[in-house]
Amino acid sequence: MTQPSPEELQQQAGKLLSQVAGYVGVRTMDIGLRLGLLAEIANHPQGVTAEALAKQTGLDPLYVQVWCRAAYASEILELGDDQAFKLAPHVDKLLLDRDFPGYIGGIPGIMVQPEFFDLFAENLPSGQRIWWDQCSPAFIQSVSETARPFYTRLIPGGLARVPGLSDRLDQGARILELACGAGVGLIRMAQTYPQSTFVGLDGDAYSLELVADRLKEIGLQDRVSLTRSMLEEINDSEQYDVALINVSMHECRDIDKVTTNVLRALKPDGYFVISDFPFPDSTEGCRTVPARVMCGIQFFEALIDDQLLPTQAFVDLLGKHGFRNVGSFDLTPVHAVTYGQK
């Protein structure tokens, strides 16, 4: 067997250590978001020293200094005059602005939840699966936070790219959101399309409680109703002008049955819109940064006995079930939309 050269060993070691460095960056972002360090630094565009940051946040000075150095090393922070730290370019938008279409501030928090890698490792020998009702409230909230920018991109910009759909929504439509979760999308749609009414459907009672409380808080309960049901149990007939599902179609226990149910529930010419991750269609396509993030998501998806799917799988699914005018487009490298009409 040919012995590797020192250069080859060094190159491979660098690749592996870069993964460890990336882990440090994820944990550093999570700490900075959870404990308000990044938000406080954003209040000081000219920079703030670690000592001053510790005073402002009421945190331990040594710990804050350690965190600041790690955040600088991970290129989350920049270092200015007098050892003053400030946010690296665009970090305020990407990590702190929850309404920015490119917001990724929810990702670090969900990546450190035990439902991701820890539970996967624990269940790896047995292959035991779980379901959403076995996930913690903290995890449910984290999922809602990561889904938020998908809705920001989809409503109204993404939906406007589906031929004929914007006019239907503006004129007033009855819309079903499948797997509505904590209601981020329902609320955004209700505020964007005031002439329309909405039904949010989800199988998780805790998520629906969150939605109900939020709807009452902002006064939308008269235009949005909620139903607890599994997607496979939908039994409506020609009730809706639009059915929408965001980052959840891949989780269907029986994806063909759900698609059949949706087709039956739609009125003639009704739209079915699937907003989801565009997982690569081959293993060879998994070495891009977006694909690596999606590979991380697959650890949790395996726990609930499913996997992210390529966009073409959704296109083929709608075509197989008789939808017309089927099409798809990418909004970002991690966000694709597939649509069709009854």
From TrEMBL:
InterPro entries associated with the record: Methyltranfer_dom, SAM-binding_MTase, SAM-dependent_MTases_sf, WH-like_DNA-bd_sf, WH_DNA-bd_sf
CDD domains recorded: AdoMet_MTases
Gene3D superfamilies recorded: Vaccinia Virus protein VP39, Winged helix-like DNA-binding domain superfamily/Winged helix DNA-binding domain
Pfam families found in the cross-reference section: Methyltransf_31
Residue ranges constituting the Methyltransferase domain according to the UniProt record: 170-278
This protein's name: Methyltransferase domain-containing protein
Organism in which the protein naturally occurs: marine sediment metagenome
